[in-house]
Amino acid sequence: MRLPWPPPDGVGAATAAAFAAGARRVEVLLPAADPGRRELHLAGFRREGRLRQAYVHPDGTCCDAYLYARLATDPVDGPEVFSLVMNSVLPRTRTIGHAMCRDESGRVLLLEVTYKADWELPGGVVEPHEPPRAGCEREIREEIGLSVRLERLRCVDWLPPVLGWDDAVELVFDGGVLDEGARAAMVLGEGEVVAAHWVAPDDVAAHVTPLAARRLAWLLDHPDAPTTLFEDGRPR
After folding, report:
1. What DSSP state is assigned to residue 198?
2. CA nearest neighbour of 98 among 219, 191, 205
3. Stretch 54-66: mean pLDDT
4. How far is it, in rounded angstroms, from Cα 85 to Cα 41?
5. Alpha helix (H) ranges present in 90-145?
6. For a tag on the chain, would you pick the N or C end, based on fewer CB atoms within 10 A?
7. Contact 137/186 with Cβ under 8 angstroms?
């Protein structure tokens, strides 16, 4: 059941009446800038998304809207209620885990993929509730068929918004040296990875984004540096 906004009798009374009448779910659509969303937070409603230009004002103009909902089975008491509501409201940032793997001559492993022109280190986006190191190791198994144990973290980099992506945090691990046997055992994952390339340090910049190029150049020039904080591909 969708409540009108604002509910004439208030969010709490309208929600209780809806559940008493047998509703399984109660939802509200309200303008994104409306301060009344605080009342929804206090009533245990969770935000489920931002809908573009979904709210129509009485004068016919439109604006973005937030969709909030509460289920009849949602908890209504206890500290977890606040946590569940705030978890749906506060910003979330993607976490990415990549590994810098080299061969005996110092060349860097870059993967060519189907969905973009630039090449990338092995690894990828970490799944929800997955530790970044474990996520990077999983991605490496999926992409090149090798089981590696990542120990050393080279840098943590904040990535600004770009090409429709929101900002993200990327962790780059030291993937170590893959010897001839490991290179021969590589099996490219189906679907995304087109090819694996061993690239000389001086040639890396020609195949990656400018952000990745400046970050990799620094990491290659400072092999013994401790874990370093980066922002936009630059050490801080």
Report:
1. E
2. 219
3. 94
4. 6
5. 132-144
6. C
7. no
